[in-house]
Design brief:
Layout: E1 2-6, H1 11-22, E2 26-31, E3 44-48, H2 54-61, E4 66-69, H3 80-94, E5 98-102, H4 116-126, H5 128-142, E6 147-153, E7 155-157, E8 166-167, E9 180-182, H6 183-192, E10 202-207
Parallel strand pairs: 1-2, 1-4, 2-3, 4-5, 5-6, 6-10, 7-9
Antiparallel strand pairs: 8-10
Helix pairs in contact: 1-6, 2-3, 3-5, 4-5
Length: 208
Amino acid sequence: MKLVIFGATGTVGRVLVEQALDAGHHVTAFSRSGRFDRQPPDSLTIVRGDVLDPVAVSNAIAGQDAVLCVLGAGRKGGVRAPGTANIIKGMQANGVRRLVCQSTLGAGDSEGNLTFFWKYLMFGLLLRPAFIDHQLQEQHVRASGLDWTIVRPAAFTDGPRTGAYQHGFSGRSPDGLKLKISRADIADFMLSQLTSDSYLRKAAGLSY
């Protein structure tokens, strides 16, 4: 497939680009820095741009089969939601329908999966702007009319790609949920959704 990945040089984005290339996809990597450690193969197009620039976003989406969104802004807000809104408008303008968007566990109806620490200290205080940004981001995705899937990972780790994780939960945590997931397994799950309708127009929690 021809894929465009927004947030491609972030901690999840870099892994997502690598796995997509390894799977044989043609990837357009969109990011502010445009810097990659590897020599770009023929199947990788690097686009340096700002996701808050709707024209640049729309141009990157033109001719793609699907869009993967892994926007990040650290603890800050103000990037994920407006950036995703621009992505959605670009997809609508270019007739591209498949969107896989990374949010966070705890957003929307997955709040019940969080521990006291994550609910009140991390998302309630320290990461509140980022959490609000994800909430607004999900609202944009749900209202888009596209063929979307929202992926809600737990806390990121640097572990390997295992393929052995729990997914699909929302309001109630499965027994023994660890509230962590490797970036490699987040990428693994997001790419798997390109060939699956299991979570079409649904949000899927993701954790060990």
